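Q: Predict the assembly, please.
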Amino acid sequence: MVTLTEVARRARVTAATVSNVLRNREKVRPETAERVLSAIRELGYRPNLNARALAEGRSSTLAMMLGNIANPFYPEFVLAAERAARRAGYFLMVCNTDDDAETGRAYLTQVAGTLAEGVIVLNTDIAINELCASAAIGAPIVLSLWEHPESPPGLPCVAVDFARAGALAATHLLELGHREIGMLVGDGCGGLQDARANGFREVMRASGIEPDAAAVLQIRDSIDAGYEACIQLMSNTPDLTAIFATNDLLAIGAMQALAALGRQVPEDVSVIGITDIQLAHQVRPALTTVAINTSEIAALSIDLLIQLMQKERVDVSPPMLQGPPPKLVVRQSTCAPKRPG
Amino acid sequence: MVTLTEVARRARVTAATVSNVLRNREKVRPETAERVLSAIRELGYRPNLNARALAEGRSSTLAMMLGNIANPFYPEFVLAAERAARRAGYFLMVCNTDDDAETGRAYLTQVAGTLAEGVIVLNTDIAINELCASAAIGAPIVLSLWEHPESPPGLPCVAVDFARAGALAATHLLELGHREIGMLVGDGCGGLQDARANGFREVMRASGIEPDAAAVLQIRDSIDAGYEACIQLMSNTPDLTAIFATNDLLAIGAMQALAALGRQVPEDVSVIGITDIQLAHQVRPALTTVAINTSEIAALSIDLLIQLMQKERVDVSPPMLQGPPPKLVVRQSTCAPKRPG
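A: Predicted assembly structure:
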């Protein structure tokens, strides 16, 4: 078994430097790091991270708990988070709760404080007070994509101003001249996306528009659900000239439903979503949406978690960072209505 | 700090039973498991998996190395693999190499044998001989989605008969009456998808059809690349009545390009892919494709890995399991050509 000391000797550095290269390459000069990596390769050295974790009281691994990795939003978030974690010298373990609170709890019990040194929780069905209880005795937890910046959750979090995202969507549709607007409100594993819906409604009301109750549907957060709901929406209220969906999956499903109904997007009906997942620019017509900058939020969440793990923060109350402000991205799925309302 | 013994006492079972519940719930009677889980919850017991891993020489974690989690194929694979791992009492750590061989090697060095007890490698740019070298000194490695069942890689693997998938696509298009067929061949992080293309070509040739060189394009494995390539394909060879893509992302991009060109799918041009990712049934028209049963392949891979880890196999040479046979799934993107060739 090759030891760290042998690697250090061959690379003509101290053992501490080898450890730094393994843990946080940025702290070491590139030429030195290259020499250490060569020595590691030549000797076939394999750091025993579990042993080191125990010895140092840390395990080099972060965990990310999320509802369902097959929802196209999450892989993009995971990708960005993993890049941020890797830059800081950590592995990222993805724990998929399958939208099941019991599974989430089982993961939390085993992961927090033992297998992982810190945990990012995305939308799951685990209650906030359970997360707080876990964080109190185990590894730090950061709640990411918190939808209610006006009321901090009592846990460190990264909040996103989703109400503002909804407001931006409303303003865009109003400025184009839309007055008959339907809403698809997602009800995913993170709960009802009501901050987005309320932000949208507020702007509408300020313009004297109260959405027709028949033109608002609450549905699961998926393309298939968006498709079905849009068919129903257009049958309830056929005069709609625009549809606002609280996320891109619903919006994409709605666009497909409109195509199936023989309604042109955007000429007959405009569609706008929220998030800007990859698919948003890949579908045709490309989706107008309000981008929330997933990558930056993921990186912020990882950074906050690592600060908490390393006790670099001395906050009086749990910190709440604000994600970057949502931004309107106008593509091809919205235009002025044929007959302005 | 609550101990395992206290949990055992409260649940009126032996410590070994508690350990079994934590590790492999299926070995324990449901009522007993429920009692143990209640005791764990009530006492706030938190198993120290790192300590246990060291004590037992195992770490309860499997790693999955893949090129890019944001390719929509992988999340579905990860979801299925994680479910299979969880059923067997393991966590699944997802290591994303970002399609970079150097990053892949760094992960492999640290993960195999220390942080994870076994590794599943999906398409990455790491050479087979490097994987073999790693497996010889560290944790077992299973190569999943091996595309060449006719030549085993020298590592335990789960192979998929992708040539057969290509052949099924060819037979479908031929039976519909297509003769002028374009090909989009993916060149992803797992290398050129030539087994699929060759399987397709063989069936074509058996019918006396040699694809026009101008009607075959090799491209990166993404919706955007499929879109661009299809525009070029239709400009090279405008008389095509069908397009075969070696994966669904390319096929979906091609369908969007055809729509942008004003060509109806399937009336003007039929499109068929391979894989059957979620999006295949979610796009409109829904994509005809050859399904490779991702979930079953993922589960097979996890099962094989665990057998190797537990030394339950005494194979003379590295085992190669066959994934389930590919299956044609006819949806709305293919039909007979207007003017049969």
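Chain B touches chain A through 57 residues (CB under 8 Å). The first strand of chain B starts at residue 61 and ends at 66.
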